[in-house]
Specification:
heterotetramer; C: Methane Monooxygenase Hydroxylase, Chain G, domain 1; six-stranded mixed sheet; D: alpha+beta; Ubiquitin-like (UB roll); 2 domains; five-stranded mixed sheet; two-stranded antiparallel ribbon; 8 helices; about 15% strand; binds flavin-adenine dinucleotide; binds protoporphyrin IX containing FE; binds iron/sulfur cluster; binds FE3-S4 cluster
Chain lengths: ~130, ~120, ~575, ~230
């Protein structure tokens, strides 16, 4: 396909990525609406921050596969949704080299966060039955 | 430019959405770090927790909740318009409806979070 | 710079764009020069519709359309041209639909049609639905559609290039010279460029800006017409200028005849439909010259609203649905510019200077002719409001201007393509830009504090409005002629406040004022000479039409001391002149 | 009545940067901002440059930033603005001089969406038929006068001047939803690229700015829905 459209405006190759991103922002938004709001309510209205020590987290809060799965799903959605969102923001306000740099940092941070979060959720032993 | 142009509801809605999105993202960074510590170094985590439970910490959580709630509601508003473009005619009404829900849910929520700090 | 092309179109209104489109289709290397972005052309403001005897809603024939055109023009119309107009109206409107123009539709999906002033069935029997329309933005849609097609066909545009001189090869036109191109001033940076071509079309629109109250755009200053005049080409029928009955009081913004076409009525201070006294059969849908005169009579008789100089246009009875679906823009105008809510109140209106029937004389192939014998200026073409074929005679019917653009714009393009294929491209002319450069530099270089463009323009507009309006007489016209000449003298000392090169609109306005003054002088002189009343030219000292003495076109040549007037006969093929009643 | 009219002046031939000038102008409340500009040019400073033509909101020449919003100068009255009026060129486009901005980029984007009917079928003898309902489908977007008020009011466009912008999408919409047109696929393809419809963040400044009252955001979302519907 021509790099330039009929007249004037340069045509970046799309490859459908923008469509996918737009779509995914919406889907993950719906998912987050449930996940993030439930998570926040649980942490603040059902329990109180003062009781959420690390012991409590491992023994009570994450003492079930369901809640671990739930929080991991949340993490994944947040990282993807937030990452795509920040990508838009970055592309809006930065140009050229600074954009590339910022995006690279963003991807890196996104990956690190995802890995760190996953390690926590997965690696802490389930104190099942204790 | 943003400050020179007098946008109406739609522009404010968008600015808040963007700001809240970035704010939540920043908190998520923090939150993942602290949870990671809960696995790796529980003692440090428990110290951080003290901050969360303190009054400034609780104010931060209220703000976080507000950002999340606003972003969630406005996200729904946007998606409704995406699905039914004719709803754009009512975008301002939908935004005000968001604020009604925001206040309706947010005030009691903020109260619950702040209750320990207020000594109630 | 010197740009070689095969064809040049000056003006990107309806007429220019269609010509350019034909040229592009024929593969002729064409440039369109326009002092505005094409979509800003005044064609876009036309509201009501474009007539073609499609007969989609009731019986209609092009012969009826031709008859109405001839009668509407008070028999000064050249009937061979009117026949071309009425016949080709049909195919051009259909072609526009094929190009994508979003006409309103009838229930069975055809182009919808509405009534319009002076358009009748069976040679004057009753109003007929002939005007094809797209809500009340027909001109907007025509302009957009033609521009779109030009883009599709890759037409080359030079936007914001103001043409300031015409070039000829082999002498001036009167010596048999042929058109060789134009000189254009690039508004963005003040550079002068020459454009050479085998065929040049002038489609620069009207010049209503010489009047105080007008429906015309600020840019309508008659550039093309005045340039022809300055090069010795006569200007035809300038005494005929149409006043549209329903302009917004004080500022002249038009409320289209479509309002009356849909059933709106005109009321005087007593609430009477006074048109019943002037045109009992067609009432408000009589031709514009008659309605405007009727309004003046009512106002003079003290029946203007509150004794003042305006009357009411009433559309309240049409109901919200018709008003909002078929007349949305003009209701909007009344709201914004007058603060009146047409759904609830009648709208105050007064006649507004609207349309130039006269202009550059052409034949039915849109070729410019330079004398009473029809001698063609080779390579020079004109179409649209600046041209005079003449299909409008002494008074144009509503919608017929758009038809004129389509039919004769298309013909111009086709004829230009033929012409361009048969001759060599003119050679570069040495120092072609010098005369006009000197002219512009003279204005630019004058000491500040001379005469002001705005003041002279204002005085011109006042005298033209007050003395050369709907009604004229010898005394008013003589006074006007003296005043216009005085203004021309003073214009020689005009100075401007901007001496820069970039987007110097001050300089361009001074340049345009010169055109307006030339044309005003021609208009007044032509009107003073014509001692009869015909169509839009109403002499109170000569209230009757005089076919024996005046069934002829005026040709005004530039002379050393103002215009020299000559005359040429009217072409009459089918319809002998008859008294004009409606 | 008198108003305080501030104009952001800039003459590239002598000013290093744009600067505000203040003019006290005697006006009638029904005067439009264009009348004030013409008055200032006639009586105060002939070098003031601005575009204008029709004088009644149809040609799209005189869109500018008036009291911090994009408006047509010939369509906004003094009594709608108050005693303090500020006028500046359209935001986000290069300024040529005073209130005149460079429009070629804007028109380039317009041209990029194939703003013309595409239909290669043989033409019928008479008009193509179209039902009133099919005609109504795209009525709103046929009103556009390409004044650029919308595109230059859009924060997404300020941020990324490559964004094709609401005006071009409106023009594409006018054809995509015309039952006689067959070029929808090509246009949707063009508009689904990186600088296409996805850059719209439903901010609605464009709708507020549009002098023709077009529901632009609706048109944009209808186009993005069409893309989603076609691919997804
Ligand atoms: C308010 C209004 C409503 C109308 N409604 C109707 C209607 O309903 N039906 C109807 O039939 N008629 C109507 N008319 C009349 C009709 O619209 C005009 O007569 C017609 O549009 C003129 O078209 P044109 O192509 O000749 O010129 P325009 O559309 O006026 O275009 C002139 C072009 O010439 C260019 N130009 C001028 N001077 C120069 C120069 N020196 N150098 C370069 N370019 C130049 C301009 O930039 C412009 O592109 C209406 C007129 C008005 C004012
Ligand atoms: C709670 C439910 C949520 C919903 C319903 C939601 C919905 C949306 C939607 C629909 C968009 C796209 C907006 C547009 O295209 O204009 C969006 C953007 C965004 N979201 Fe969310 N979101 C949610 C939670 C989150 C969370 C938890 C974060 C933080 C990690 C976040 C960060 C962002 C960011 C940064 C953007 C980009 C903003 C912009 O481009 O202006 N969102 N959100
Ligand atoms: S959509 Fe409205 S604001 Fe945008 S260019 Fe068209 S008319 Fe102007
Ligand atoms: S202002 Fe811009 S973001 Fe979309 S709704 Fe309008 S184009
Ligand atoms: S001058 Fe034409 S839109 Fe304002």
């Amino acid at each position: 396909m021509a790099l330039y459209s009929r007249s004037g405006r340069p045509r970046p190759q799309s490859g459908g990525f923008e469509l996918a991103a737009w779509y995914f922002m919406r889907l993950s938004g719906v998912a987050l609406f449930a996940l993030a709001l439930v998570h926040f309510s649980l942490q603040h209205f059902v329990f109180d921050p003062s009781q959420q020590t690390s012991t409590w987290i491992f023994n009570q809060r994450w003492n079930s596969l369901f809640w671990r799965g739930f929080d991991w799903l949340l993490l994944m959605m947040v990282v993807l949704h937030g990452f795509l969102g920040l990508r838009t923001v970055t592309m809006d306000y930065l140009k050229g080299g600074r954009r590339t740099l910022a995006l690279a940092t963003l991807y890196l941070v996104g990956a690190v966060i995802f890995v760190m979060g996953t390690i926590v959720v997965m690696s802490v032993p389930l104190p099942l039955g204790k | 430019m943003l400050l020179r142009y007098r946008g109406s509801e739609g522009m404010v809605a968008w600015a808040f959405h963007r700001i809240s999105g970035i704010a939540i993202w920043l908190f998520v960074l923090l939150h993942v770090l602290d949870i990671y510590l809960a696995g790796g170094n529980p003692n440090v985590y428990d110290d951080i927790l003290k901050f969360y439970a303190s009054t400034p910490g609780r104010i931060m959580e209220v703000l976080l909740g507000a950002a999340l709630l606003y972003h969630a509601l406005n996200g729904i508003r946007i998606m409704l318009m995406d699905l039914w473009p004719s709803l754009t005619a009512y975008h301002k009404q939908m935004w005000y409806a968001n604020w009604a829900i925001f206040v309706g849910l947010g005030l009691p929520g903020a109260f619950i979070i702040m209750r320990p700090a207020l000594g109630l | 710079m010197d740009y070689p092309f095969d064809a040049i179109v000056v003006g990107a209104g309806g007429a220019g764009l269609w010509a350019a489109l034909e040229l592009a289709r024929e593969g002729v290397n064409t440039a369109v020069l326009t002092k505005l972005y094409p979509t800003r052309s005044h064609t876009g403001t036309a509201q009501g519709g474009v007539c073609a005897a499609l007969g989609n809603l009731e019986e209609d024939h092009w012969e009826w359309h031709m008859f109405d055109t001839v009668k509407g023009g008070d028999y000064l119309v050249d009937q061979d041209a009117a026949e071309v107009l009425a016949r080709e109206a049909i195919e051009t409107v259909i072609e526009l639909e094929h190009m994508g123009l979003p006409f309103n539709r009838t229930p069975d999906g055809k182009i919808d049609q509405r009534r319009f002033g002076g358009h009748t069935s069976n040679y004057g029997e009753a109003p007929v639905r002939r005007a094809c329309f797209a809500a009340d933005r027909t001109g907007h849609m025509i302009l957009q559609t033609l521009y779109q097609q030009c883009i599709k066909h890759g037409v080359k545009f030079f936007d914001e290039y103001q043409v300031v001189d015409l070039l000829f090869e082999g002498g001036e036109p009167a010596q048999g010279g042929r058109a060789a191109g134009v000189v254009a001033y690039r508004v963005a940076d003040g550079q002068l460029h020459t454009f050479r071509a085998k065929a040049v079309l002038l489609a620069t629109g009207g010049f209503g800006r010489m009047f105080r109250i007008t429906s015309n755009a600020h840019s309508l200053t008659g550039d093309g017409v005045a340039l022809c005049y300055r090069h010795g080409i006569p200007i035809q029928d300038m005494e005929f200028f149409q006043f549209h009955p329903t302009g917004i009081v004080g500022i002249g913004i038009l409320l289209s005849e479509a309002a009356r076409g849909e059933g709106g009525t005109l009321l005087n201070d007593k609430g009477e439909r006074f048109m019943s006294n002037y045109a009992p059969k067609l009432m408000e849908l009589a031709p514009r010259d008659m309605v405007s005169r009727a309004m003046y009579q009512e106002i003079r008789a003290g029946r203007g609203i509150g004794g003042k100089d305006y009357l009411y246009l009433d559309v309240r009875h049409l109901g919200r649905k018709v008003i909002e679906e078929k007349l949305p823009d003009i209701t909007d105008f009344a709201r914004i510019y007058q603060g009146v809510e047409p759904l609830k109140e009648p709208v105050p209106v007064q006649p507004t200077a609207h349309y130039a029937m006269g202009g550059i004389p052409t034949n039915v192939f849109s070729e410019v002719v330079r004398d009473d014998k029809g001698t063609v200026v080779p390579g020079l073409f004109a179409a649209g409001e600046c041209a005079c074929v003449s299909v409008h005679g002494a008074n144009r019917l509503g919608t017929n201007s758009l038809v004129d653009l389509l039919v004769f714009g298309r013909r111009a393009g086709r004829q230009m393509a033929r012409h361009a294929g048969s001759v060599e491209r003119p050679r570069p002319i040495a120092d072609a830009v010098e005369p006009v450069r000197a002219e512009l530099e003279a204005i630019r270089g004058r000491q500040a504090g001379g005469e002001s463009v705005a003041v002279i323009r204002k005085e011109l507009q006042d005298v033209m409005m007050d003395n050369v309006g709907v009604y004229r007489d010898g005394k008013l016209l003589t006074g006007a002629l003296a005043k216009v000449r005085e203004l021309k003298d003073r214009n020689g000392a005009v100075s401007i406040g901007d001496c820069g090169a970039v987007f110097n609109t001050d300089l361009l306005e001074a340049n345009e004022l010169g055109y307006l003054l030339d044309l005003a002088e021609v208009m007044v002189a032509s009107a003073l000479a014509r001692t009869e009343s015909r169509g839009a030219h109403s002499r109170e000292d000569f209230p009757e039409r005089n076919d024996a003495g005046w069934l002829k076109h005026t040709l005004a040549y530039k002379g050393p001391k103002g215009p020299t007037l000559k005359y040429k006969p009217v072409s009459i093929t089918r319809f002998e002149p008859k008294p004009r009643t409606y | 009545m008198n108003v305080d009219l501030r104009i952001l002046r800039y003459n590239p031939e002598c000013d290093p940067a744009p600067h505000w000038e203040s003019y006290q102008v005697a006006v009638d409340p029904m005067d439009r901002v264009l009348d004030l500009l013409i008055k200032v040019k006639a009586e105060r400073d002939g070098s003031l440059s601005f575009r204008r033509s029709c004088g009644h909101g149809i040609c799209g020449s005189d869109a500018m930033l008036i009291n911090s919003r994009n408006r047509l100068a010939c369509r906004i009255r003094v009594d709608q603005l108050g005693k303090k009026i500020s006028v500046a060129p359209l935001p986000g486009l290069p300024v040529v001089k005073d209130l005149v901005v460079e429009m070629s980029g804007f028109f380039g984007k317009y041209r990029s969406v194939k703003p013309y009917l595409i239909n290669d079928q043989p033409e019928p003898e008479r008009e193509r038929l179209q039902s009133a309902a099919d005609r109504a489908r795209y009525d709103d977007t046929t009103k556009c006068i390409l004044c650029a008020a919308c595109t230059t009011s859009c924060p997404s466009f300020w941020a990324r001047s490559d964004y094709v912008g609401p005006a071009a999408i409106v023009q594409a919409h006018r054809f995509i939803f015309d039952s006689r047109d067959e070029g929808a696929a090509e246009r949707l393809e063009i508009l689904s690229d990186e600088d296409g419809v996805w850059r719209c963040r439903t901010i609605f400044n464009c709708v507020d700015a549009c002098p023709r009252g077009i529901n632009i955001t609706r048109a944009i979302l209808e186009v993005s829905s069409a893309i989603v519907g076609r691919r997804g």
